[in-house]
Amino acid sequence: MTTLRRQSDDRADAAAGEPIYRLDAMVQDDVPEVGRVERRCFPNPWPASAYRRELQNPAQNTYVVLREVIPSLDLDVAGKVSDASAQASTRALPRRSLLPIGLGRRQGTNGADQSRIIGFAGMWLAFDEAHVTTIGVAPEYRGHGLGELLFLAMIDEAIARGANWLTLEVRVSNASAQALYRKYHFTVHGTRKRYYSDNNEDALIMWSPALHDAAFRADIERRRAALAKRLGGRVARSERSPLKDAVNGAGPA
User: Fold this and answer.
1) How many distinct structural domains can be found in the chain?
2) Catalytic residue among 129, 169, 201, 221
3) What is the spatial distance between Cα 31 and Cα 41, in angstroms, rounded to a whole number?
4) Is 181 in the active site?
5) Is residue 96 part of a domain?
6) Could you state, in chain order, the average pLDDT of each consecutive group of 10 residues for the chain (253 residues)?
7) Within a domain: residue 126?
8) To 5 degrees, how large is the angle CA 191–CA 227–CA 60?
9) Which residue among the candidates 21, 51, 141, 181 is catalytic per the annotation?
10) Residues whose CB is less than 8 angstroms from the CB of residue 219 and which lie 6 or more positions away in sequence, other chains included
11) Deepest of 60, 155, 169, 229, by most Cβ within 10 A of its Cβ?
12) What CATH number does the domain containing 37 carry?
């Protein structure tokens, strides 16, 4: 019942001209599309074989994809698209939906929604530590809170899996990413010299506060509520969404 009601809400939002975003677990079939997006994000993307290998070991890692979903047209009893549905669909297609050839769109059939991958994130887990390995959002979708959505999903997953700490590397020149991590109280604990092979750039090593710390967890919930407000209900309530309970003012269990 909840799923159907959320789907109705999502379609109404799309009809208002706003895209709907959904977080899903990455599966093998997603790898080619993830690779196309990643090549637009980073100068040294992972090979497809790396993702395929990682996805074979879900006990020690987690990977998610962020999709933009365009709801399908509603059909009348004669099987024809109603004028209202056609107009809503036209409003549902933002200008930025015209992506470069190769990024593509998953076409719906038999009334299914259409979607495309526009972002991704991944994390390793070892003992009591979690390590964010990658976060990427297609360039034309940046600046809208979607990178933060993916990052928050990684924090939630680390907590859910019992990790005590979360760490990551970030380019010394990537000020926007560093600002996001500092917003969540990550601090620099060292440097990896010449870490990035494309230009030998150094990486900052950043660590979270203790994930079980009460003050940190309370701040996470404040950030969650603020992000939910910023995204205006445009994130579908999938299992992987860090905002699935935000409307009730509650985070993950």
Assistant:
1) 1
2) 169
3) 15
4) yes
5) yes
6) 39 57 97 97 94 96 95 46 41 34 41 84 96 97 96 97 97 96 98 95 98 97 96 92 69 41
7) yes
8) 50
9) 181
10) 184, 185
11) 155
12) 3.40.630.30
